[in-house]
């Protein structure tokens, strides 16, 4: 259901005009519409899959199969539209929606027209029938022209020249959309380098002409790289499904998408980025440059974390005055018959001329300043003023009206009436008017006596502090005035000393937070701190005291009202944004365990604010060592990853990231608590709807930082393991420091196994450097196994677990051939030799795993070599033609096959795996088959 304002409804009339009778699977169904006083309400078919624009922006480019399916939907829908003698006119991926099964549907026929119809004349006819009430009639010619123009990126050349849209222009727009689906970018988009080149060359002033040396960086190589990055264009090189690219074996990651968009997984099918191994190798050079950019971004992760600490939901504000969650007030009404001035509506007040406005203000001020006379006249005057104040309460809720009132002579008159009013009925109405003006004003000039009003409210609060009812009337307008000052200070950035709030105002508000006060007064004081501290302003600094944190925490822990608990926690969260000393004083007062026990609260907002508080503390460096070493704290944060709220999970990732940046050993506990599973779940999560989009975008950004840190940490973990093992080589009695290092580093192999088993991390961490370091681990098995002393110091269980995890990690890598095919030489030099040696070790489990992994890897290498031979159309192996092939054959014939008979004579199941490996070798390599026959292995 869509609500559209009536004064811009011409396009919606056209939409209803065409779609109310259209029934097609590829056209959005229109059900009904009705109107209210200000809006048109359209009831249309629900499409939960988002728009085609969102799909393209997320997946960048779509596979051939998906483009073919989508194109069929678009063609069928467009044919139906054209068969109905309708021209769609405005092609745009944002106007094409997806339903739940993934069917494309044309929507928004706001610029459609009947074939041969002049849309501008139709608009003019509709506007002339509506008359002057339509706001578009102010500048009809230009406005109509703008309203009938579609998206220029998808406009046909003849339409840009001024001709009307037609069936041909619709076909042009469809072609642009198909091109964008296939390439991921529009037809008219070009790179920034190309734009700079053209703009530099097309200088009208010869003196400003740029020399060619300035564009030396725009070389032919760079142009070729841009062509490769844009994707292959030759259709003959395309496949509907290819297995040559590593990225096809993992889902969309937050690292592959624009940070400003949420993750949208179109289907379970991967999106091919290239179609051949050759193209993949060419793209790898570009990806290497991208990895360098990621490293640069990693170094600036601290700045990124601080930018993500607070979201919009953390800083939203709600009114203090007339807030039903705090205090429900009866609606204010006035009697228009006895009103002493013209009872203008809000709309009429906005249309008053300057002279009429001045006259109106003069009447209002005259009535308010009138002196009450003794007798019955005093009562009448008082009633007149009260009725006028009630009228002002009704019209001050409009932003423009409130802003005009607060900048007029009415505001000083109200302050004077607040001081001189004879009774509290009059004063409370004046307070309400001032509070409404402050709440709804969008601007505050320097000459407005707002500080005088703050001082007056402060004085009244101090004089009547024991009267709870009066405090409930005085606090909301005082809070709204402080919020208005805070908003203007944030807007002006450097306001200097324009609005200096009296210190007594902060003092009296802090007194209202005390435990002996009523709940409503506590809630109002907490709400004032919450709203003011949402702004980056000087006004908020007055609340930063040693007692504000514990006072807000006391309200949170001792209140029975959830709204007050949320408000107190929100106020503490926002004041910590200005100074972490507020939350630090809470930790010092009540202790960390008491705070961690509040994580089990069933209120999502409380859990979100708690995570924000801890993230802010870690980012500031306060209590850093204490928090990063507290395992109970990490466990509580890990449990937050199970929350249904995307924001809470994002905050939890942000807190964990800062913990892991300062304590790498905690990563082992996190992985044992299913951290990788949580990452994969949230990375695959699709956008459920627009109302959740911003939350998922925030989750994507936090996940991006977290994943980059994990990828960056893996080489360091391997280095620690290699260093610990290298320090005990040849030693019978390791030192205490070496033993401690072993106990810390060997269990971290679980982290390596978790990351390699994940389809999110595996393609990002497996590279040449990783394979080299991993290959260095394999020869250390014999060291661990043979050294009895090392077993005693490092514990046999830890050593066996380390070996088992390492072999499992090697199996995880070997099962994904496309990863290893990119690093053939590295696999031959670093991985296969130690594996061949382990195949003849004394440990049966190592031998089985080694044979299994050798079978997988050699099958990959030999199959790849056969494919290359077929391409080169060679009939025989050329042992000298390719060095990698020569090294592989040498390794098999010299290190493996001469001892192979011992494997075949071993007890089961070793001969089974040995025969599988031998079958792979002889089937794909004639030289190996001949060599095996020569040493009688075939018998």
UniProtKB/TrEMBL annotation:
GO terms for molecular function: ATP binding; protein kinase activity. The keyword Nuclease does not apply. It comes from the Eukaryota. SUPFAM superfamilies: ARM repeat (SSF48371), Protein kinase-like (PK-like) (SSF56112). It holds the Pfam family HEAT_ULK4. The keyword Kinase applies. Residues 1-255 form the Protein kinase domain. Keywords: Kinase, Transferase. This is Serine/threonine-protein kinase ULK4.
